[in-house]
Design a protein that fits this description.
- By secondary structure, the chain is an all-beta fold.
- Helices cover 0% and strands 48% of the residues.
- The protein has a 6-stranded mixed sheet with strand order 2-10-9-4-5-6, with no helix packed on it. Strands 1-3-8-7 form a 4-stranded antiparallel sheet, with no helix packed on it.
- Strand 7 and strand 8 form a beta hairpin.
């Protein structure tokens, strides 16, 4: 079955960095675009970034220039490097394979606070 395990979150000061990981299993990872999403308290889940099987990337305007998505198909893992973090980046972060809207991991909490 499809499993998604996010990790790497934590508490960081504004301007700091974190690297999130999402280990995937149960499907042919290398053939799927992988997205990162986030959900802040009291808000709906929003799309953050996506990477295609070929490595093309796209980002939400709110994170463009600060976040970098990458993937390692040999490890079935997608990453999100987050730099210059802002208070408004505080959220629970999830990964998801495009085309599988019912499969989500437990998420990893990112808290940006001074």
């Amino acid at each position: 079955q499809v499993q998604l395990v996010e990790s790497g979150g934590g508490l960081v000061q504004p301007g700091g960095s974190l690297r999130l990981s999402c280990a995937a299993s149960g499907f042919t990872f290398s053939t799927y675009a992988m997205g990162w999403y986030r959900q802040a308290p009291g808000k709906e889940r929003e799309w953050v970034s996506i990477i295609t099987p070929g490595g093309s990337t796209a980002y939400a305007e709110a994170v463009k220039g600060r976040f970098t998505i990458s993937r390692d198909n040999a490890r079935n893992t997608v990453y999100l490097q987050m730099d210059s973090l802002k208070l408004e980046d505080t959220a629970l972060y999830y990964c998801n394979p495009r085309g599988m809207p019912n499969y989500w991991g437990q998420g990893t909490q990112v808290t940006v606070s001074s």
